[in-house]
Structures are given as structure tokens and as C-alpha cells.
Amino acid sequence: MDIQHYPLVFEPILQDRIWGGTKLKTDLGKNIPTQTTGESWELSAVPGNVSVVKNGPLAGKTLTELMEQYPDDVLGTNVHKRFGKQFPLLFKFLDAKQDLSIQVHPNDELAKKRHNSFGKTEMWYVMQADEGSRIIVGFNHKSSPEEYLEKLKSKQLIDILNQVPAKKGDVYFLETGTIHAIGGGIVIAEIQQTSDITYRVYDWDRVDANGNSRELHVEEALDAMNYNTTDTQKTYTKDENKSNTMVDCPYFTTNYLPLHGTTAIQKSGTTFTVYICTDGEYKFEVEGETYSFKKGDTVLVPAAIKAFTLTGNATLLEIYIS
Question: Could you list the active site residues?
Fold first, then answer.
């Protein structure tokens, strides 16, 4: 059986975070190593955190090995042409027991110049939100570097930021330069460019068990930040057994696919597709073989698989590169 015949699942890369909790285990069935596990990197080609195939004949191979050996089959012809043998996206689940730091990500140009990296355009899909939880995203009025630094110094930064109540099903699209933080009490599915560049500007004066605070990047963030107000929350349709567009940007397209029954999918071979199951369970059938997936599973469908069916009762996020 070769690469094009089956959907790939990877070993989760679990990350301990000062703000993390236990919902990745209780809600998503991840085998977390600590009581403060904040992130499950589901599909990653970030150096030092490269995903390893968990299922089937390719088990044990890394995502970067697949890129080297089967770039057109896995990535698709267009994606391979555009990005070379690099996997261009990073997929995560996040469990924010506490507020994440207030932070910003640089654009492609700045990230290339400073870090030889992609920038970090990202989107969030809220999978679960405790009563009273909120998302911090963008400024609540047109700001400036001077006002931002003054409020940061006086520990009043939150006063000029936009705080939005969080609820299940909310979608936020964060272009680079958008100041933001995920609030405590929220589980999120995150889709982003392959990048781990974060400028942390305020961390709520937190310290770790040894009394150390995390590094801040106040100066680096100054020219990376968009001081205008931004329209980050996205609305979308929810037609059953159809791909409903949530976000369509140069870096990725994400659709909402509420599956009830069976739907047949046809692909062109130009891009890989990823399915993130945020609720329920479903079966993936290709060439007479059936694979079962459930809430918390992230599946990479190689571009070489051009026809398959999905059957079940599940909520799926469908991601590819246009």
C-alpha cells in the first residue's frame, strides 16, 4: 500500500504551558503528561517539533521525511510548487485554563528578515468555552505606539484592547500584527502558518514555580503591530453535508462541514486536505478501505487521494490551500 491510499494520523506533540490545564485529556482524549498541558500539536513541521505518523504502513516516518520522499503525493502539485518540500501549516489544540499572554505575530517580511521564518497568520475555532470566558483581540479604538507603551508601562494595556465573550463555534481570523490573547476557560482548534514566532508583550505579571517570569518582546513587537481596529470575528453558514467557508486567505482555506449521513468528496490533486473533528465521529472510506475517526482527531489526506466518502454524525473543519 503506498502513500496515496490512506489518510494519515500523527502522534500528538504535547506541550506543557504555564497557562495549561487538563481539558485536552477530558475533552479530547489526549494522553497528557502533566496537569498543565496547554497544547497538542497535531500536525507540525516546526524544527524540533516535527510530527511522526501514527497509523498504517508509514507509521514512524516524520512529516519532513514524507515531504522529501513524496512531495507531490502528499502536498499536492500546486502546494509543492509554491512552498517546495516544506509543510506550510501548523495545526494545534489549545487548552487555556488561564489567560495566555498578550502577544502579536510578525508578518512574512519581518519574520523572514529577523528569524528566517514564515510569519504567523492564524485562525481560531472555539471548541468549548466556560461561562464568562473571553477572547482578547485587537485594539478597541485606533491606537498608537506611544499610547500602547504608556498603557503597558502603567499595567493598563487591557483597557485599550477589545474583549469579546467567547462561545462554542466562534471563529476568529488573526492577520499578522493583531494583538491578541486567548482567555482562560477556552479550548481552541488553531490553524496557522508554520511558524513559532511570537512576540509576548504582557504576561499578567506571572511567574513560574521557580519565581521566574517569561521573556517579553516589547521592542520587537513595536513595528510588528497593527494599531488600527480590526474585524477579526467571522460569521459562516452551517449547511449540512456541505463545505461552508469560514476563512479564505492566501495561506489557507478553512470550511465548516457538519456531517450527517454520507457525503462524497472529489479533489483535484493540487493540495492536501486536513480534517479536524471537533465533535462526534465519522468514517473515511477510500478504495474500499474504511478508517474511523472521532472528536479530537486530526487527519491529513494526501493530495493523491482524489475521491473518498465521509459518513457519520460529526462536526469537521476542512482545511486546504487554494
Answer: 200
